[in-house]
Specification:
Largest sheet: 6 strands, mixed
Number of strands: 11
Helix content: 10-25%
Radius of gyration: 18 Å
Strand order of the largest sheet: 2-3-1-4-11-5
Order of helices and strands: EHEEHEHEEEHEHEEE
Length: about 190
């Protein structure tokens, strides 16, 4: 019998909750993720510890049979995957923020702006729905610094439910590009 290959985030928001869920199912495994790959001791399962934004690709390419990932990452990567279970933990939203001193007067204030984000697909869909044309700058981390270094006038970044990290000290969130995201289990569409 082949092992079920499960792709999970190697570190970050989803990692601990995902691994706790597996443990609650009675599956025992080595939790030292430095190996990037481990086998369960009492169930035919292999764990692939990956970067969160790589998980959809590994599942789409059938390297992993199933993945646990944030819905925001799944939507951003736009792979041919389906959600088989909404887990509901690690809730967040994707918000657009501008410097606090900016005279913000609604979503049309973003017209013609440069917006830095790690989520260009989600952001471009949102802006299109709002009838706003803006220049999107894709960056992979430290999005919040973009206005202070002159890369962009606004940012679109993750805000965890119950906290406001996107507001930092110099930014204020105004628009929500993705209202709610949380952990989901995904498989390749039509896969077996």
């Amino acid at each position: 019998m082949n092992n079920l290959k499960l792709a999970v985030q190697k570190s970050g928001r989803l990692s601990e909750s995902s691994l706790n869920l597996i443990k609650e199912c009675g599956i025992t495994f080595q939790t030292r993720m430095a190996k990037l790959k481990a086998n369960a001791f009492n169930f035919p399962m292999e764990f692939l510890y990956l970067r969160d934004d790589d998980i959809p690709g590994y599942v789409a390419d059938e390297v992993a049979d199933v993945g646990i990932v944030g819905k925001n990452v799944l939507l951003e990567k736009n792979e041919d995957l389906e959600i088989v279970k909404e887990l509901g933990f690690s809730k967040c939203r994707l918000s657009i923020a501008v410097p606090k001193e900016f005279d913000y007067r609604g979503v049309q204030s973003l017209e013609g702006m440069n917006i830095a984000t790690s989520y260009p697909v989600i952001l471009s869909k949102y802006l299109e729905q709002q009838g706003v044309s803006a220049e999107i700058h894709e960056i992979s981390g430290s999005v919040e610094i973009a206005p202070s270094i002159g890369l962009a006038e606004a940012v679109c970044d993750i805000v965890s439910t119950g906290s406001t990290p996107v507001s930092y000290t110099h930014l204020r969130a105004h628009e929500t590009a993705l209202r709610i995201s949380y952990a989901v289990v995904c498989v390749k569409r039509g896969g077996g």
